[in-house]
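Hi all, long-time lurker, first post. I run a small reading group and we've been trying to get comfortable going from sequence to structure in the token notation. Rather than ask abstract questions, I figured I'd post a concrete chain and ask someone more experienced to write out its structure so we can walk through it together at our next meeting. Sequence below, copied exactly:
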Amino acid sequence: MVPAIGDADLLAGFTACTLSAASFGHREHVRLAFVVLAMHGDFGDAAIQYRQLLRAFAAHHGAHARYHETITWAYLAIVHARMATGSYADSEALLAAHPDLLDHRSGALADYYDVSATISDPLARRVFVLPRRSR
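-- Answer (accepted) --
Happy to help. Here is the structure in token form:
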């Protein structure tokens, strides 16, 4: 197994779009959320930068249609909340403490959303959609 790159290198490679699209999977999305949130401290500022970075990276790799607004904001909020539960040296320490963040089908996001329905919802892809409460 190839060791993961450090947080600083992840951010630098992502910002410069020198990382390949294939090397940027769900784990790297969550790690990048941690890095941007840790850098800013403020959720609003971090959210704006995180969204801009993801959209620019997707556009650079010709995958702008893969960007999903609801999934982006929801994961960022979940990571932010998890970061508030402890002190984490880096993104890998956060993931070690919260492995459910890595399960993008039935993990942390599934506590709030019907993940399959949300992923396939064209409205949720374009704009942030709040979770629907089960009745």
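A couple of things your group might point at:
Residues 7-126 form one domain.
The chain has one domain: 7-126.
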